[in-house]
């Protein structure tokens, strides 16, 4: 990366700098080293004052002098390391890089103690300069530090997406599920595109009342690009500016500053994702053609408010930003969970059979499911929960930040520590059979904890209805404490109607003549199953006319 950045500076400029100021280079190096050592000494002195009892930090891999655990975070398969560290060191794993502390929480009990019972101290957001400032995600409340702006944004979002409000969206989600069935029926081999289109088009309708009829709709394409770059940049150790925030002030032409040129380019896309659909709603409202959606409803409320112009503009910005955050948070998570579901279905035909038997007992193969059927379909409910548990969309998500010094179980937790709940990473070695025994080597992370789940790496919805396991809330799949995903109730409703609808008419199987795929997943901030093939079978002659009737 550094070499690429150096190469990007015009050779003439590099030559002139080196020729004109050769005597300054050693002085600059000495100055940098002096500043670094002074900072390190001051941090060490402050640490002693903050921890007068000299309590140890939680256990973790041995840090190196000065750089700490930099190599642990930047070299090798990071996600396998997280699982291995959880097994080796226990419920809390501590690392540090250049004086920045990181803490990984590997059990539901400790996560509840810290994120829930001590939420006032664990609800801040660890700001990553690359994503938050340079790439322009500072408007998104999921990335904001704890404060009034974050509270106002989350309050606005929660009001429109709390459980009692989700029923207003049922028609949108049902129509979207029917359209997904129609697309799968027509071109089953393009399932990946169908799922991507479904997630993007549904949330676009909910937030902006925009119908995305084209697969390459510009709104959706822009959002996909912005989210892809954010997921790339947010991986631990990806950019040094996240360890040395002062680097954000380095000019773009400076050697090693290629990250700033990337960020400037990506920032434009991020703002397009936020602004363009919002402006489309405002235009529709001005034309008198807008229908009810998240943005039009809240903007309509503001038109009748008695706020001053300044206060009103602040609220307009919050509406715009909250809608953009809702879209960004929903698309990728829905797509990943549905991909994982499809993989689980073809690996576990017994799960499909049980789900279809339950659906047939209620629907009698005469109609598609509705939300009114949900109380009568507990196994479908269990499939939603197990899909979220089995394959985590965001194994670590975005880190919280500890606001004040704290202690836990005899360990010292320093203020400013970036703290993450390790919900569960899925790896190629995960067995696909529901009958395989536990792997003793890696079953310690929160949603794959062998202490709470029998055979935790198996996809088994029955654990939520049959086994009477002391499982605990599945909500941790959406985050922790006050930072838990505010859109989780919408995600639950969307996943339920899609799962129930698909299994009522289709059976998914391994293609004839092919071997069953492995449960292999990408490793990054957002995790997806690696590409796999499957066959789609209509469950009977009644399927096609039933689906076609929904499109008239």
From TrEMBL:
Pfam families: p450. Pathway: Secondary metabolite biosynthesis. The keyword Chaperone does not apply. Heme binds at residue 485. Keywords: Heme, Iron, Membrane, Metal-binding, Monooxygenase, Oxidoreductase, Transmembrane, Transmembrane helix. InterPro entries: Cyt_P450, Cyt_P450_CS, Cyt_P450_E_grp-I, Cyt_P450_sf, Cytochrome_P450_fung. Coiled coil: none annotated. This is Cytochrome P450. SUPFAM superfamilies: Cytochrome P450.
